[in-house]
Automatic annotation (TrEMBL), chain A:
SUPFAM superfamilies: Thiamin diphosphate-binding fold (THDP-binding), TK C-terminal domain-like. Its cofactor is thiamine diphosphate. This is Alpha-ketoacid dehydrogenase subunit beta. Keywords: Oxidoreductase, Thiamine pyrophosphate.
UniProtKB/TrEMBL annotation, chain B:
The lineage of its organism: Bacteria, Bacillati, Bacillota, Clostridia, Eubacteriales. Pfam families: E1_dh (PF00676). Its EC number is 1.2.4.4. This is 2-oxoisovalerate dehydrogenase subunit alpha. InterPro entries: Alpha-ketoacid_DH_E1_comp (IPR050771), DH_E1 (IPR001017), THDP-binding (IPR029061). Belongs to the BCKDHA family.
Length: 327, 331
């Protein structure tokens, strides 16, 4: 077992899975010779050759669209969209093609495809290198949306996504790439998509979140513990499908729910989680459901004070959870 | 000695030529029947191949049918018939029946897809299929499976970004793919001169570094020959070809369209003089590839097939509402 960064865990999983399954190919902008702008695919072209790690033309609709065709004809493509913000030229291919091919062909065709994309802010990326785009895709039946929070999960979930028979969007928070480290077993393993992870048990407040925010929430929980506030944390791991059972269990256990995401508030997955709790666990609640999310402004600004004001931080989570605990 | 320009001079057997004719005529007859069903209120909507039969059959028959992939568009009834979809299957699709192999009654008519014959399922947003064909070909290149893929599309769709992205991607990676444009001069009502400031779609090819070929889309033999050449080129690893087949649709865009609003009757009549089904029939008879007796037998067989398909599909069960939830995911 080695300690790895979140980024290294993704790279080593790609390597391990590619060694194991010759059908897996990687392509996207700069993923070959350069190993990706974040170096996630560094060294993979050297090991697997230009046929399996392909520097593609700079055209997102073509990257996803050709990956759909390649998947139908027997490959397991894992294309990279360089920044999640650049996924929109491909949205028709993802939403109207990849997500619907199984359904519209009455099960005849499937699209085993994993689209990897770094997302999220706090890295001075401004409007077009900071976005959280997951809610757009979580709305779409036929897609799966996976957002790992730790190197361990990054590995098990990526392997599961690659082996999945359906299109999976795999979002990697770029602020997590090098800042989040953890132990990752050498051997191959899978984490089933759709199973949330109870990161911590507590009795006063439940924080339901995913991705990088899980790490921020854990930090907030430590601070609050010193104040005598006991926090439970549920890492959703995937926002489509949602682990409804575990969401309702934690809501019922503490009676106070704080939902956290960096994606902006309105139409974010927090609304869906709230609705599920309201529909199925209302009478277990001791306080209104609270949401802490990115603000409803078009996207994250560049200048540090503006960027900081946008970001969801450990401090903001601590403050929100404290307020909820005292309700 | 074989005469220059005659059918006998071609490297095509009489059987192949007759199959070509049969498929074109079958497509026309099925098409006509679908319009009748529509006007009788028995089929909600029809998209027609009427006028395009030569392009579609000529191109399909030049491929290794059922092995090479095709990614058609809504106009391609004759193409999917040539590729092995049966008239019964076409009618099940038109009438939204449970056993429709294209979609189980989920998609609008003319949204083809038949896994058994390597016809990839298609959506409605035009040019999306062009990148799928390039992707199928990418897999063929990596897997070295010897397959060629072909996307077909109208000239209106060449205004879409994905048409250009597909050609560029395929040319850069020298993919075994054919892009077949069925240029009938109109995208519903909008004439080609309002889609592009050039005369020929094929001229685009040069900008992407691939051959662009213009062919008479009302001559199935010529289409067959250029498609054959493109497929050979693709299989040799020399990359994609753009084929522009100039043709015409004889009916409105769909059963809900009225083309009198945008085309003169004189223009339609002029093109009908070159109706590919009629001219090819005459050519086969004149050059004695097909006898009058054979033609009569074909006509009877087509009538029987169309009647059988209509009756079969009308009696076939509709989908169970409970199946609405099936096939969202594999598990």
């Amino acid at each position: 077992m080695a300690v790895m960064s979140y980024l290294e865990a993704i790279r080593e999983t790609l390597r391990q899975e590619m060694r194991h399954d010759e059908r897996i190919i990687i392509y996207g902008e700069d993923v070959g010779v350069r190993g990706g702008v974040f170096r996630v695919t560094e060294g993979l072209q050297k090991e697997f050759g230009e046929d399996r790690v392909i520097d593609s033309p700079l055209a997102e609709a073509a990257i996803v669209g050709t990956a759909i065709g390649a998947a139908v004809n027997g490959l397991r493509p894992v294309p990279e969209i360089q920044f999640a913000d650049f996924i929109f030229p491909a949205i028709n291919q993802i939403v109207q093609e990849a997500a619907r091919i199984r359904y519209r062909s009455n099960g005849a065709f499937g699209v085993p495809l994993v689209i990897r994309a770094p997302f999220g802010g706090g890295v001075h990326g401004a409007l077009y290198h900071s976005q959280s785009v997951e809610a757009f895709f979580a709305h779409v039946p036929g897609l799966k949306v996976v957002i790992p929070s730790t190197p361990y999960d990054a590995k098990g979930l990526l392997a599961a996504a690659i082996q999945d028979e359906d299109p999976v969007l795999y979002f990697e928070h770029k602020a997590a790439y090098r800042s989040i480290k953890g132990e990752v077993p050498d051997e191959r393993y899978l984490i089933p998509i759709g199973k949330a992870d109870l990161k911590r048990t507590g009795k006063d407040v439940s924080i339901i979140t995913y991705g990088l925010m899980v790490n921020y929430a854990l930090k907030a929980a430590e601070t609050l513990e010193k104040e005598g506030i006991s926090v439970e944390i549920l890492d959703l791991r995937s926002i489509r499908p949602l682990d409804v059972e575990m969401i309702l269990e934690t809501a019922k256990r503490t009676g106070k729910v704080l939902i956290v995401h960096e994606d902006n508030l309105t139409g974010g997955i927090g609304g869906e989680v709230s609705a599920l709790i309201a529909e199925h666990a209302l009478f277990h609640l001791d306080a209104p459901i609270m949401r802490l999310a990115g603000p409803d402004v078009p996207a994250m600004p560049y200048s540090p004070p503006l960027e900081h004001a946008f970001m969801v931080t450990s401090d903001k989570i601590t403050e929100a959870a404290r307020k909820l605990a005292k309700f | 000695m074989k005469g220059v320009g005659t059918l006998a001079s071609l490297n095509m057997t009489p059987e192949l030529l007759k199959e070509m004719y049969y498929t074109m005529a079958l497509s026309r007859a099925l098409d006509d029947r679908m319009w009748i069903l529509n006007r009788q209120g028995r089929a909600p909507v029809v998209y027609s191949a009427n006028g395009h039969e030569a392009v579609q059959v000529g191109a399909a028959m030049a491929l290794n049918r059922g092995e090479d992939w095709i990614v058609p568009y809504y106009r391609d009834l004759a193409m999917v018939l040539a590729y092995g979809m049966t008239p019964r299957e076409v009618m099940l699709h038109l009438l939204g029946r449970a056993d429709d192999p294209n979609s189980g009654g989920r998609q609008m008519p003319a949204h083809w897809g038949l896994k058994r014959r390597h016809i990839l399922t298609t959506g409605s947003v035009v040019a999306t299929q062009d990148v799928h064909a390039a992707g199928l070909a990418l897999a063929s290149k990596v897997l070295k499976d010897g397959r060629v893929s072909m996307a077909s599309f109208g000239e209106g769709s060449t205004s879409q970004g994905e048409f250009h992205e597909a050609l560029n991607f395929a040319a850069v990676h020298k993919l075994p793919v054919i892009f077949l444009n069925e240029n009938n001069g109109y995208a519903i009502s909008v004439p080609a001169r309002k889609q592009m400031a050039i005369m020929d779609v094929a001229a685009r090819a040069q900008g992407y570094g691939m051959p662009g070929v213009i062919v008479d889309g009302n001559d199935p033999v010529k289409v067959y020959e250029v498609t054959r050449e493109a497929a050979d080129r693709a299989r040799r690893g020399e990359g994609p070809t753009l084929i522009e087949a100039k043709t015409y649709r004889f009916v409105p865009h769909s059963s809900d369209d009225d083309d009198r609003a945008y085309r003169s009757r004189e223009e339609v009549a002029e093109w009908k003089k070159r109706d590919p089904v009629i001219t090819f029939e005459k050519r086969l008879l004149d050059e004695k590839v097909m006898t009058e007796e054979e033609l009569k037998a074909f006509q009877q067989r087509i009538k029987d097939e169309v009647n059988d398909a209509t009756e079969y599909a009308e009696k076939a069960p509709l989908p169970d509402p409970a199946t609405l939830w099936q096939h969202v995911y594999a598990d």
